[in-house]
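HET-domain-containing protein, pasting as requested.
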Amino acid sequence: MAENIYSELRPERQEIRLMFLESGQPEDEIIASLRWAPECWTPEFEALSYVWGDPLITRPIKLNDQPYQVTENLEAALRRLRHDDRVRIMWIDAICINQQNPREQEHQIGLMRDIFGGCAQCIV
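Structure tokens follow.
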């Protein structure tokens, strides 16, 4: 599944992915898409820092038009943080980093200080 959702990031650059969380009402399906962001990390984005929760308790969202499982805690956060009238641009480690790619994980974890330092707002 992850191979279809994640485009390759170039490790020699400070590239990240941003998640575009579609607007919706609390009871609506969560729909989001991932987009590559160059080194300058535009447009402005918000970074979410949260407790991942039990990895065995998951909920479905739609990511890049495909079903994608996230932890129950993350699903609850996305439901509460989603705007009802506009897209919200976010960086969330569990979604924006390909968790099936150890090389990418290592590189992206090395960028987290810059990611949290460069975001428009950090949500905790």
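Note for the archive: The chain has one domain: 2-123.
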